[in-house]
Amino acid sequence: MNFSGKYQVQSQENFEAFMKAIGLPDELIQKGKDIKGVTEIVQNGKHFKLTITTGSKVIQNEFTLGEECELETMTGEKVKAVVQLEGENRLVTSFKGIKSVTEFNGDTVTHTMTLGDIVFKRVSKRI
User: Fold this and answer.
1) N or C: which end of the chain has fewer CB within 10 A?
2) H/E run at residue 20
3) CA distances (Å), 93 to each of 42, 68, 75, 111, 124, in order?
4) How far apart are the C-alpha atoms of 52 and 39, rounded to whole Å?
5) What confidence category does residue 34 fall into, taking pLDDT thresholds of 50, 70 and 90?
6) How many other C-beta atoms are found inside a 10 Å radius of the C-beta of residue 87?
7) 26: Cβ–Cβ under 8 A, 6 or more apart, which residues?
8) pTM: predicted TM-score of the whole model, two decimal places
């Protein structure tokens, strides 16, 4: 399955609680909660390049499945992680106690991040 494309956020659950738990300041949480961010994915075999644009903030991450990489988080911190493909349509990684699962179904992407008992869910559609 090729994941390349542009996806825009349609809905999200537990944004404020999750962002507070990872240490994002309240003013940034309030600014970001209603922004319909866009993620662009360029896949070349096992290599991925993601550009995540949320308002004026842009995060770019590159990784190769199964290899350690450095990812920039929502707080701007850089972390080491390994992204794995589960099945044919799920990208999974963990860092700093957070489990991140991105599932692709047709033109819909469901991204779930779990930290302790807080589950942040974001649903995006291909644009």
Assistant:
1) N
2) helix 15-21
3) 18, 10, 17, 11, 19
4) 4
5) confident
6) 8
7) 20
8) 0.91
- Here the tokens at position 34 are 């209603």
DSSP state of 99: E
Question: What is the residue type of 125?
Answer: K
> Residue holding tokens 């404020």?
16
CA 50 → CA 15, 16, 36, 60, 95, distances in Å? Answer: 21, 23, 16, 6, 17
First-residue to last-residue Cα distance in the chain: 18
Q: How many residues does the chain have?
A: 127
Distances 45 to 2, 42, 116 between C-alpha atoms, Å? 8, 10, 33
Provide the residue type at 124 as one letter: S
